[in-house]
Amino acid sequence: MTSGFVGRTVELGLLRTRLQRVTESRRGVAVAIRGRRQVGKSRLVQEFCDTTQMPYLYFTATKGMPVSESLAMFLAELKRSGIAADPETLPESIGGWPDALRSLATALADTPTIVVIDELPWLAEQDIVFDGALQTAWDRLLQQRPVLLLLLGSDIHMMERLTAYDRPFYGRADNLVLDPLNPAEVGRALGLDAAESIDAHLITGGLPGILRSWPQGLSPLEFVRRECDDPAAPLFGVPEATLLAEFPAPDQARRVLEAIGNGERTHATIAATAGSRSGALPSGTLSPLLHRLSADKQVLSVDQPLSVKPGKPALYRVADSNLRLYLAAMRSVQDLVRRGRSDAAYELFARRWTSWRGKAVEPLVRDALELTALAGALPWKDVTAVGGWWNRVFNPEIDLVGADRAPVADRVIFAGSIKWLGTPFDRHDLAELTRGVASVPGVVPHETALVVVSSADIEPTLTDTVDLVWNAVDVLAAWS
After folding, report:
1. Model pTM?
2. Dihedrals phi, psi of 280, to nearest 5 degrees
3. CATH number at 9-177
């Protein structure tokens, strides 16, 4: 199994910088940390608290708990933490969050202290005065003390709203978005080569909650085979818990998400699949749902075709590759595992894996090329955006387009193909790419560069025809 704390060097550095500011100024600093479930927010903050060796209070809210019980738990945690300069001054009970936060401010010593409130959105759900009480306590009391206040939450939309301009805590906290571990961090944690690191990232979504159950050096396919012996394995349990937490009822939003997870990408096909016996979902119903799932919950990503002309249609995909894999394959695999048919479960996964991976790796490759371009490490200095291109009938569909800006470019600088099927990019693939890129608005024959990204490299005779060839090592290096 992976041992110890993995990655997060940048995030730990950012938190240490804030703590140093508290130490030097003797004034409070607040940081709002948000990220998807199982991304490692609590683990990051606990590691930070442990390594600083400074006094800290760590309070975790419980969803659905009555306000009185939450207050009692907070007071008990405050007494147990040992941060109080004089524990005798702490009250026996508190009547509301204004009193609780005043008691916290009174308890703080003159030395720097860390205060963590985890799952803060659940407190705001329980008590409508919580946000205002937090703002008042911060302005009048806590900000005057040497305290680093860390506010954590998995409800991304509610955490964004916490510091929005029309909310009480606006302008009072720095925002830290915690993303999943990147492919290079996953590879280092598991001791895998480049191609296996990318596969492991696609399978786990870079979520520490799954990576902790992955034995060091075990290949991705062997890991999945091993997990098929356990119906409660994190590979199944983590995405299942995310689905239940975000979409507890089988409503329209859940049907839309499942349609996209099963491979529907366009507005029309999603509407047809997520509809009912009476027909497809009306646009007036589906469009707000897609906006909420992408903009508010951020469970969906939206891709637009990239060229010198505006293009349609937009394509939707599940943002988290682990949840995407669960909806596309692992939920059916888990059903077989629960019935004791582990061999059949793995065979089902193996049948779906290659084709699923071939499409799932595309946004990862685009991100890698864009990161490399922004670092100035591609042959073309003007590239600032990397996407794909397609028309309404998806004939052709071009995997890679590099341009000077997005979504509508002034200039297309390169176009290319991703082949992640275990066989080399060959002459047939090159002919198909050459024909296809001619349809992309902004591509100039013999001037626009050709790029190939392949898990199995390229036929040697084609290297002089293509301007840039990447393999798995190059893709992984974007995060190194």
Report:
1. 0.89
2. -70, 155
3. 3.40.50.300
